[in-house]
Amino acid sequence: MAKRQQADNGSTATTYGFQTEAKQLLKLMIHSLYSNREISLRELISNASDAIDKLRFRAIENPELVADDAEYAITLRFDKDAGTITVQDNGIGMTRQEVIDHLGTIARSGTAEFLAQLTGDQKKDAALIGQFGVGFYSAFMVADEVEVLTRAAGTDECTRWRSRGEDSFTVEDAADLPRGTSVILHLNEKSKEFADGYRLRSIVRRYSDHIGVPVRMPKESHEDGESDAEELETVNSARALWTRPRTEISDDEYKAFYKHVAHDFEDPLTWSHNKVEGKLEYTSLMYVPKRAPFDLWNREAPRGLKLYVQRVFIMDDAEQFLPLYLRFIKGVVDCNDLPLNVSREILQQDERVSTIRSALTKRALSMLQTLADKQPDDYRTFYQQFGEVLKEGTGEDFANREAIARLLRFSSTRHLGSDDAKNARVSLDEYLERLVEGQEHVYYLAADSYEAAASSPHLEVFEDRGIEVLLLHERLDEWMMGNLHEYKGKSFQDVTRADLVLPGESKDEQRKDDAADEPLGKRIAEVLGERVEKVRRSKRLKDSPACLVLGEFALGPQMRRIMEAAGQSLPESKPQFEYNAEHPLVARLANESDEQRFRELVLVLFDQASLAGGMPLADPAGYVERMNRLLLELLPE
Ligand code: ADP
Ligand code: MG
Q1: Residue to mutate, 28, 44, 136, 215, ligand 1, most ligand atoms under 8 Å from C-beta
Q2: 315 has which bridge partners?
Q3: DSSP β-bridge partners for residue 287
Q4: Residue nearest atom 17 of ligand 1, based on CA coordinates
């Protein structure tokens, strides 16, 4: 909804309303990030550097774009009296339409849903907004009014954008601008302190030293900080961070660079910086974020590394350098051997790219392993945020399956009864250290919730014999176990399956067991009929009278749910019924000669076994009636 009015210079100024999401984000930023106002300068310098990167790339094919000024730079000026700061770049600039699109809306999909989660609680919101990336709108944290003057490279179209950061902004034609963009901040009362040479220099060094473009400021000609507009000096080191030797880079510099490449507000958890020489030459710098972005599960969300070729920026989000399950990794890859005009299509097919990709994948996994070994608390944070994504790797990346499995963490019966049982995790290596004698399997149980897993009757024999069982209760777990098969020579065994083999037993013995027909089993089978595939005496129960188990190849409940949700119609799978002959209830059942009563009791046991296994009852009302009949018999009239 644009409103036209005559501007002072005779051209037409048009007023636009900010997109709702942009308006919300803007407000939120001002309120929740107030104590971090310095970062607004970091963001503007970061944008200036991005704009120069983009132009440098375009100029490879089209050198006349930079014929007017080939010396890329960012210039920072201030005017103490006027209370302004200007961030100028000679980068790609924006056309009028781009100004309207980029500085008035947020194009990222899922933004509205994301904003709807915000609570109004400053601390929580600040963290959320970090996930989003703060960007241009952070300028309004320090400024009452922001002005943008811009001319897109290769055009004459000069545009001026202005806003007070409330509901609207104004766009009008401007005259005779140099190539690129100037952002002028009219500082608010509380931020006037930033219009100061010393302060600005220290901000640039702190946040923007790593940028591969010089950031220049007017030389300080007087002690009191009066600036001389004519003479400029470079105030950052202006070398792209990843091109410097590791030993010369401080942690703070690595962190500052991370915020620039990842558009993140928080520090990363860890990083890995490597230079590879030889047949293929490339440098990579990969980071693990502390927090998952809000669109981690959106398949369309941008992902991948920032690609440079011989120091020249080529593209954001080059997703060909890492597999999908490592999509949370941020960073840079700079290759010497690729052509500058490389496109996404070429990347897709290039053999060099796939060589680099497998090396980077290994490197990323070993960075995570080091994090797990050296900073277990940070690894826990990582796993909470990205564990579910990592699990995808078990199906995607056969070559690295063991390295991925080593990074997995599980709830376990080992922690049952401890204070934080639900959140405590074990690794497979830890599990292997605790095998009992003769144990050939890693035992696990998958259920819909931790509580259901932890209270399953299937665990009884394991508890009795002191054997640890992994408790799987997250969305992808059952699917993942189908991919894993084994770890370090020990195969995985689902303890709810009919073919359970306990330490010290062999499969043959188990078959023999199976075949042993008991009269009680036969009687029960007659009652249950079509409801079950098989009835047999259990060896896994200690305290419960009965349980249901799945056939060796039957689909587990989690997988069944996932596939049904995806619209697949699945054949019905029948459970097997196992009874605990030692249980007093079952022992008395065996002596029950009244067939009708026997039948009632067996049906109750069957329903109870379903309930204990977290499965819905086929006929809940029937169960309640039966129970009530039995209860009535117990109570005297
Ligand atoms: P981001 O940098 O994460 O894309 P920002 O909010 O910082 O998000 O910027 C929004 C968009 O505005 C940028 O993607 C870019 O298209 C445009 N933009 C901002 N600053 C500049 C600039 N100095 N030169 C050219 N374009 C810019
Ligand atoms: Mg930005």
Answers
A1: 136
A2: 307
A3: 271, 330
A4: 102
| Reported confidence tier of residue 10, pLDDT bands at 50, 70, 90 | low
- Ligand 1 pocket: which of 45, 50, 72 to mutate (most atoms within 8 A of CB): 50
Q: What is the dihedral of CA 615, 618, 624, 627, to 10 degrees?
A: -80
The atom of ligand 1 lying closest to the CA of 263 is: 3
Angle at 544 between CA 540 and CA 548, to 5 degrees: 65
At residue 444, φ and ψ (nearest 5 deg) are -145, 160
Nearest CA to ligand 1 atom 8: 135
pLDDT in tens, 93-102: 999 999 999 9
Note the pTM of the prediction, 2 decimals: 0.83
Other CB atoms within a 10 A radius of the CB of residue 107 amount to 10
Q: Give the residue among 331, 236, 307, 267 at the shortest CA–CA distance from 39.
A: 267
Q: Using the structure block, give the residue that is written with the tokens 């680099």.
A: 356
Give the residue among 391, 396, 392, 386 at the shortest CA–CA distance from 358.
396
Q: From atom 10 of ligand 1, which residue's Cα is the shortest distance away?
A: 102
**Cα-to-centroid distance, 40 and ligand 2 (Å):** 10
Establish how many alpha carbons lie within 13 A of residue 71's alpha carbon, considering only the half-sphere containing its beta carbon. Answer: 5
Distance 129 CA to ligand 2 centre (A): 14
CA 136 to ligand 1 center in whole angstroms: 6
Q: Among all chains, which residue has been given the structure tokens 């086929």? A: 618
Pairwise CA distance, residues 27 & 43, whole Å: 17
Centre of ligand 2 from the C-alpha of residue 446, in Å: 43
Q: How confident is the model at residue 223 (pLDDT cuts 50, 70, 90)?
A: very low
Closest CA to 383 of 286, 261, 288, 265: 288
Distance in Å, CA 402 to ligand 1 centroid: 41
Ligand 2 centre and the CA of 141: distance in Å?
Answer: 15
β-partners of residue 307 are 315, 333
Residues with CB under 6 A from ligand 1: 43, 47-48, 50-51, 89, 91-94, 102-103, 133, 135-136, 181, 263
- Which 8-state DSSP code applies to residue 581? T
> What is the rounded CA–CA span in Å between residue 498 and residue 340?
59
Number of residues in the chain? 637
Bridge partner list, 184: 86, 147
Would you say residue 25 has pLDDT above 80? yes
Q: Say if CB 472 and CB 446 are below 8 A apart.
A: yes
Rounded distance from Cα 317 to ligand 2 centre (Å): 14
**Least confident stretch, 131-145, 179-193, 347-361, 497-511:** 497-511
Amino acid present at 282: Y
Ligand of minimum distance to the alpha carbon of 317: 1
pLDDT tens digit string along 59-86?
998 999 999 898 999 999 999 999 999 9
